[in-house]
Specification:
It comes from Paractinoplanes deccanensis. Pfam families: Acyl-CoA_dh_1, Acyl-CoA_dh_M, Acyl-CoA_dh_N. The chain is of the alpha+beta class. It folds into three domains: 106 residues, Acyl-CoA dehydrogenase/oxidase, N-terminal domain (Butyryl-Coa Dehydrogenase, subunit A, domain 1, Orthogonal Bundle), CATH 1.10.540.10; 107 residues, Butyryl-CoA Dehydrogenase, subunit A, domain 2 (Beta Barrel), CATH 2.40.110.10; 146 residues, Up-down Bundle (Butyryl-CoA Dehydrogenase, subunit A, domain 3), CATH 1.20.140. The strands form two sheets. Strands 1, 2, 3, 4, 5, 6 and 7 form a seven-stranded mixed sheet that branches. Helix 4 runs antiparallel to helix 5. The protein is globular, with a radius of gyration of 21 Å.
Length: 381
């Protein structure tokens, strides 16, 4: 049992699912954790690990939502950057094709992506459009015979500097509806420039994308993406994954702080024996347990077909807020050692800020839940 799984939620996994989680856990501890700080410090992506992720055989696994959530937790527990890389590729990019693609498109792209022979990116956010992207999407798509011409700009696009396929969302000038396109990165007119000087998720290769007369054949337009409602179907699935990632970050922070408290001695005794340190550790495990319980129940609702937008919105908002508290308390326990990468926690403190914001800010997710429970929309129109 994990130190932080005080209520033994992991026991809800089947034997086969638990075996998959153990296999991924062991891989991450052996291959990712030892190099995470170095690559984070250099803002460099460990490309040599891509095919190792393929060996895990999990990218196109049609398992329970509980299993998929627990895998997201494990990845974030090791390194939030690599969890984001995987979430963009297997969640957002593959999820777009799986949800909005035709059967021919799924057969054409998903096997290669599941094998990590083709890496995916997801281009929705724009320089001037984040929370208001549903109405404010400015990238345009113009039909020209059997081809579409894309023009516009995208920002914060994870994996985009090295992805093979980029799912680009653009507004049709003909019907004013948002549509999705699968665009090879080397397509003429598409440029992806790495965003520098980040203080969070430094290993993730986020990019600014410029689309200047990019021509995409009709065959590469996602055939079942006909409005932003279809885009939202993808986002509502991946939003729950971010809640699980937040729990993974909390788990890592708790494990680091607990180990440190047992080993660090002051006044002739381990600091774990001090009342104030125990208070912080109990607050941490309380946040962790409550958030994990919410995610487990969310997964059960998904598996039962009873899942609604407000479920993932509340989980994302709540878990990432609790995560911020937990990483702060862990940093407090480590005192000065908490601000250097050598003790790991500094990386999680920084990375938590990105998880707190992406896949819908706390404020936007709050309004989604608020609308559900009051029947009144407080969104600005």
């Amino acid at each position: 049992m994990l130190d932080g799984d005080l209520y033994a939620f992991q026991d809800l996994l089947s034997e086969d699912e638990a075996a998959v989680v153990r296999r991924v856990h062991d891989f991450l501890d052996a291959e990712v954790v030892p190099i995470a700080n170095d690559h984070w410090a250099r803002a460099d992506f460990p490309h040599h690990l891509i095919k190792r992720y393929a060996d895990l055989d999990i990218a196109d696994r049609q398992g329970s939502n509980l299993l998929n959530g627990w895998l997201a937790l494990e990845m974030a527990r090791a390194d939030a950057s690599m969890a984001t890389f995987y979430g963009v590729h297997a969640g957002l990019a593959m999820g777009s094709i799986r949800t909005c693609g035709s059967e021919e498109q799924k057969a054409r792209w998903l096997p290669q992506m599941a094998a990590f022979d083709k890496i995916g990116a997801f281009a929705l956010t724009e320089p001037t459009g984040g929370s208001d992207v549903a109405a404010g999407l400015r990238t345009t798509a113009r039909r020209d015979g059997d081809t579409w011409v894309l023009d516009g700009n995208k920002r914060w696009i994870g994996n985009a500097t090295f992805a093979d396929l980029i799912v680009v969302w653009a507004r049709s000038v003909d019907d004013d509806q948002v549509k999705g396109f699968v665009v090879p990165r080397e397509t003429p007119g598409l440029t992806a420039t790495k965003i520098e000087n980040k203080i969070a998720l430094r290993t993730v290769q986020n990019a600014d994308i410029v689309l200047d007369g990019v021509r995409v054949p009709e065959a590469d337009r996602l055939q079942n993406a006909n409005s932003f409602k279809d885009t939202a179907k993808v986002l509502r699935q991946t939003r729950s994954g971010v809640a699980w990632e937040a729990v993974g970050v909390m788990l890592a922070a708790y494990e680091i702080a607990l180990k440190y408290a047992k080993e660090r001695r002051q006044f002739g005794r381990p600091i774990a024996s001090f009342q104030l340190v125990q208070d912080l550790l109990v607050r941490m495990v309380g946040n962790l347990t409550g958030s994990l319980g919410m995610c487990v129940r969310l997964a059960q609702l998904q598996d039962a077909g009873q899942y609604r937008d407000e479920h993932s919105a509340l989980a994302k908002a709540y878990c990432t807020t609790r995560m911020r508290e937990v990483v702060g308390w862990a940093r407090e326990i480590l005192a000065g050692n908490g601000i250097v990468l050598d003790y790991d926690i500094g990386r999680f403190v920084a990375d938590s800020e990105a998880l707190y914001s992406y896949e819908g800010t706390r404020e936007i997710n709050t309004l989604i839940v608020g609308r559900a429970i009051t029947g009144e929309s407080a969104f600005v129109s």
